[in-house]
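Anyone have tokens for Cache domain-containing protein? Sequence:
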Amino acid sequence: MTRAPGTDVRRRGRVDAAAVIRAAVADVFGTIGELGRRLRDTHAAARERGEPWRASDVAALREPVVELLAAPGAVPVGMGAILAPDVLADAPLQLEWWQVPAGAARPTRLEVDLNPSSLGFYDYLAAEWFDVPLRTGRRHVVGPYVDVHGTDLYVLTLTEPVHVDGEFVGVVGADVPSARLEGMLLPRLGDPSDQVLVLDDDGRVVLSTSGRWLVGSLVQRAPARWAHQRLLDLPWTVLTPGGLDTPLG
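Reply: yep, here.
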């Protein structure tokens, strides 16, 4: 965390839950943004050589990504870059993603079928974590959901768009286990009696300090007299005691 409770994240003697959560997510996006810079660097290097941008250039991201995933205390379990169609000279589609599978000691590259003619085709262009940054030009968070492509964990996928000379060339992102997000945030949210509930735009629980709401469950109506605070640039709303009973959705 870049901001500790007791500085700018306290409000009227209590921890400002929205500020704590925003700071934690900003830290993850800071790492993702560095990966985006490195992706743009591979494009610039190919241009300086007078060569087209190729899949092998993007594959050079492997070393920094593996180092980030293997670092002590690393929050993400998966990171990488997913390219827009036909931006690479030798690959119509390209997904360069490395993750730490359940029980594994070292990150491995995620292998998916990118052949549109195949029954097992992985159409990432239709995925929310790719489509929303493409359409909006803004970062996005999807989940929590069960990652069936290797980690088998309940995760959130955070992505942001990458542009080169104003052209969208893909997204960079990270998978963060819900349990790690909770472990990082709960000690920073003050007294356990200070309840905090975080919902996505569908009304599903992203984070809760109470056993009353389970991560991933659907909340039809906010608790009575709870305040709502929308997080800018994120599809989340933070709820804390002290507002009105408001229907969601």
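The domain at 21-180 is CATH 3.30.450.20 (Beta-Lactamase).
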